[in-house]
Amino acid sequence: MKRRLIYLNNAATSFPKPKAVYSAVLNCMRNLGVSVGRGTDSLTTAAERLAYETRVLIASLFGIKNPLRIAFTYNATHALNIALKGLLSGGEHVITTSMEHNAVWRPLKHLERTRGVELTAIWCDGEGKLNPKEVERHIRRNTKLIVMTHASNVTGTIMPVHEVGEIAKRHEILFLVDAAQSAGSLPINVNEMNIDMLAFTGHKGLLGPQGIGGLYVREGVDIEPLIHGGTGSHSYLEEQPYEMPERLEAGTLNMPAIAGLKAALESLMRCGVENARQHEIALTELMLQELSGIKGMRIYGPKRASERVGIVSFTVDGFDCGELATSLEKRFGIIVRWGLHCAPMAHRTVGTFETGTIRASVSLLNTDEDVIALARALRKICNA
Ligand SMILES: Cc1ncc(COP(=O)(O)O)c(C=O)c1O
Description:
The chain has eleven helices and 13 strands. By secondary structure, it is of the alpha/beta class. It has two domains: 6-17 and 273-382, Alpha-Beta Complex (Aspartate Aminotransferase, domain 1); 19-271, Aspartate Aminotransferase, domain 2. The strands form three sheets. Strands 2-8-7-6-5-3-4 form a seven-stranded mixed beta sheet, with helices on both faces. The longest helix has 21 residues, at 42-62. The model has no long low-confidence stretch (mean pLDDT 96). It binds pyridoxal-5'-phosphate.
């Protein structure tokens, strides 16, 4: 009999998905199979309706008034690259944090080298927490943008997006938020949080398939497109149209992934983000409690589950992270991730750059038993 795997690497990609997601992807490929804007037939109209309804669901999840201000992208990395490269032409100053994923930090470093963009990364504390006052203190005359993650993918730390949004608004600076780790777990309202641009991905907390994400851009903000090409509309124009979402959506959309994302959003909204969050807090609380009793255990990030998303990073004194993670899978069928998790500066911030961490991360579909199995396995391996 095949051993049941316990999957605790949901911060990378959530798995499994709600059953409705699998059927929606298959149904789209089998029965719809066409592309938005590439015809006037009934199938194309149905595909357009599907894409629009998905934008409407995303809009209602994030408090966005006009669903057409959401462009589909492949993932959060793609969305962040569009926003950063389309906004910063050179000479501007950008403020970010030391907890960013490479999806933010690498495009910024590229822009620093190629366009002379000036960067300030505000150093967070040992739990990955950001002091919003430090953001305000570093604003310069040429600060054009503040870009930051909503939640760290290393420590799970929830960042003060609300407070930083207010600062950005007061100083008339654009505010871009990376919601890769928060969409689907934390309530997000772009208006209340003064978010001008929101980058998200479909395959993590939103429980959709890979290959789909999005970028919301507030009315009045124009982003120079990263990719130019056909949109199925305004074909007489030699340049990319100004209208959103076509401005940022050249090329054929990933319809099966959009169909899957729509089904995922419907099931998430049936459950309710608040309930999903309560489930996440309960599992994270249990994980913090269960793991903290293990000999040599060091847990990084905030002590309280309510201050983090469903991510717990740890090391165990005397054990190599890679060997421990391999034993967890080989001996107990438990999948976690170890290493730097594409966020090296976050590890420098919390002091784990040399060792990396083991990261266990939960989704809506994990249970108490999964978390208890992880703690039991670690106790056995570490002989505690
Ligand atoms: C905080 C953060 N930002 C951005 C990304 C990039 O997401 P994607 O791989 O979907 O582009 C990730 C993925 O791990 C992440 O954790």
